[in-house]
Each structure stands twice: as C-alpha cells, then as structure tokens.
Amino acid sequence: MTERTLIKNLAALPDGPVTVSGWVETVRDQKKVQFVVLRDESGALQLVNPAVREVNPEDATSEARLDITETISGLSVGSFLTVTGELKHDERVKLGGIEVKIGTLDVASLAIPETPIADDSSVDKRMDWRFLDLRHPKQNLIFRIQTTFEHALRTYWIDNDFIEIHTPKLMASASESRAELFEVGYFDTTAYLAQSPQFFKQMAQPAGFGKVFEIGPAFRADPSFTSRHSTEFTSIDSEISWVESHEDVMQLHEDLMVAGVTAVKAKHGDEIEALFGIALEVPATPFPRIPLAEAKRIVAERGYEVPRHDDDMDPEGERRISAYVKEEFGHDFVFLTDYASSIRPFYHMRHEGDTTLTNSYDLVYNGTEISTGAQREHRIDVLVAQAKEKGLDPEELDFYLDFFRYGVPPHGGFGMGLARVIMLMLGLPSIREVTYLFRGPNRLLP
After folding, report:
1. 227, 429 contact by CB (below 8 A)
2. pLDDT attached to residue 227
3. Which of 340, 372, 419 is nearest to 176 (CA)?
C-alpha cells in the first residue's frame, strides 16, 4: 500500500509524487481544468486536474484522464477519496502555497449530495448530525486542544508521583445527593450511576496511595437546560494526603491549570488565534483568592446583589467577580473560598472555631465556575455528626465511614468538568460545542 501523507506535512516535502486521502470540501468543475479542495484530519489541500472531455485516439493516456474528469464531475461534497499525484509548490496557490496534480483517483465512499446541516444551522440541528459537524476545522481543533490539555495534566501528575485510579461508575448508594442520581436495574436490585468518584478517591487515602487522579465519566440527573450543564460529562479529579488546609489543594489545582494552558498555548496557540480569535494567556500564580462573603460585597458595590435564597454565588455573580478580577489583577482565574457549611457536602471540613464555614473553594474561570475543591473531614466522630446534621443516615454511609475507622491522613481534593474548561478557554457559548457527543435531559442520540 502506498504510504499516505498528511496534508499538514506536504509543505515540508520537495516537489514530486505523493499520496493523500481525505474528504471533498469543494469542487470547481470548469471546462478546461477541475479543482478539488480535499481535507483530512490535519488540513486542506487544492487538487488540480487538467480536464479531458473526450478520448483522443492519438493519446494513450486520454481515456484514463477522461475517467478522472468524469469522476470529479460526479463527486459530492463529503465523499472520501485517495489521490496519488505530483506535489508542486506554487506561492500563487492561496491554500497553503501548494497543490497536487491528480495522477490517479480512487473514491472510497460517495456521499449523499444533499448535506443536512450548514454553518448557520442551530446547535441542536448540528448535534443531530454530529459526525458531519465534527468535520469543521474548529471542531477538529477543539478535540486536539482537549487531548493536549489532558496529556499535560497527566504528565504533571505522573511527574509528581501521583497514582492514576479508575473508579466504578455503578454504585450501591448515593455518593452525595440522591436527587441527582440515575437509577439503573442491577440484577435483582437497584444501582446508581456515579455522580462523582468522591468516595472512591477518598478511599485511596487510608489505602496509603497518597496522591491520586482520575479522568472519567460522571452522571448527574439534573434537568438543567443551561449552556454549561450536561447529564453525562468527563470529570477531572484529584485527591492528596497530608494537607494542612484547602490552600494545599488550591496550589495543586493552579499548578495543573498552568501546566494545561501552557501546553495548549505552545502547541495550538496560533491556530486558536486564527480560528477563535483568542490570544491564549498562561495564568500567573498564585491565582487570586477571595472569600465568598467578600466577593459578594464586591459585586454588590459594583451594582449587583446576589439573590439571598441560599449562600452560594449565582452565575451572574460569577461573571461580575471575574470581571473585577480581570480589571484589578489581569487574571482569568479566581478562587472563591470559605463557602458556608449549609451548602457544602457533609464531608467538607469546617473552619476551626467557626463551623458555619468550610475549608473549601470554587474555581471560577472566565466568568464561570469550573470546579469545587476542599479539605475533607477525616475525624470519624465529626464526620458522623455532620452527616446527621445534613439529614443523612450514617448506616447508609457505613461503607464510606469505614474508611475513617481504621486510620486516615488529613486529605483534600477537587473535581472539575473538562468540557467547561475547554468551553471557557475558547470563549464558546455552549458546552455542547466541546463535548464529543452531548447528553442532556432530552438528548440520547446520536
């Protein structure tokens, strides 16, 4: 089999024979010459064919050239093909300064001529035809960025002696809120899809693993139709032993974000600027830290009162505090710290001397929360008391509470949504744009 060359690698090659494969993006079928823009996973290329409209009996090659001409005339956008021909560098060619004169053409698969989506189709329509939507160069780049970002995080973890774990996604009982769980039949009983690896990554601490991480699926039975929610998502989680406070977790978190953004900027920065119009900036450390109460005061002084129905920061408040941080510190990230125990899970450690506050934080990126982290409560008596206070039955949590009955070090960690990070990094309006196959309350296909 002739070796295929990726389009992005052609510019570095000398003029001469090459083989390329991809799908048809456009066809210009002129009387004397035909042009085809071929795209593969790495870029686009102009193919050229001197058209032959009838056989010349004096030219032995004219019949083959006629076949190629007729084949190109019948090509539909989206058809996959392989071409072998002559690479030529020509600065007059607008598409990369190179073109390939077609020698042979093999159609692997013809596409239906009528394309069901266009660039201006709604996001829901594009999700219906996601495999076609993903052919767009922007979509291709999104998932290359995601790959680079994840690889950078893994590299950081591995270089710093973390252990990767893969926790189960079928659970016997709720990990946090039963209201947000999907129930599934499990033989003669009921199981739940994990909304978080929380309990299992904590289990690694009494096991003596010390530092762990996981990138895996999580599920939330949350009937939200917002631009930043999904019912199935990829969760980035890490947990570490021997923390003194949530400050240790925040330091880990910001180091990981710096590693991820640095790698993305180095590999894709120019493409991001060209396709998304964003000059990606590597964040400086330490990230700004603002206690939640102070953050609410700041946004109130700037003309917005966060609704008082709970003790959290609402989406508009997140946007407002991010705008303040950008103005005052030139930073895209901010840690909001010291959340009220009334809105945090029972396993978050509370402040020494003030049990109304927790050693916890949310990380806000470009106006939207991407993560929650905290120091965990490791003292069994306190943990049981806090569970009861939240209306939980300790007997139902026995398997979890057992972790703390046989010795556990002080520890903490965070969970972060991968898609939200990429969405905010690229300034996109919806998490659907950065999810390979989105799942929401009314979407289970494709």
Report:
1. yes
2. 86
3. 372
Contact indicator for 65, 52 with CB cutoff of 8 Å: yes
> What pLDDT is attached to residue 16?
97
Instruction: List the CATH number of the domain containing 186.
Output: 3.30.930.10
| 3-class secondary-structure state, position 373 | strand
Rounded CA separation 191/335 (Å): 35
* CA distances to 6, 251, 335 from 288, in Å: 43, 11, 6
Total residues found in the chain within this entry: 446
Q: Judge if 102 and 138 occupy the same domain.
A: no
Q: Which domain holds residue 21?
A: 7-109
In a domain, 2, yes or no: no
Mean pLDDT, rounded, for 284-288: 98
Residues 74, 218 within the same domain: no
Domain check: are 167 and 42 in the same one? no
Looking at the DSSP bridge assignments, the partners of residue 106 are 82
Q: How many CA atoms lie within 13 A of 57 on its CB side?
A: 0
Residue 156 shares a structural domain with residue 104: no
Distance of CA 67 to the CA centre of its chain: 45
pLDDT tens for each residue of 307-362: 876 789 999 999 999 999 999 999 999 999 999 999 999 999 999 989 999 999 99
Q: List the alpha helices (DSSP H) in 333-410.
A: 380-389, 398-401
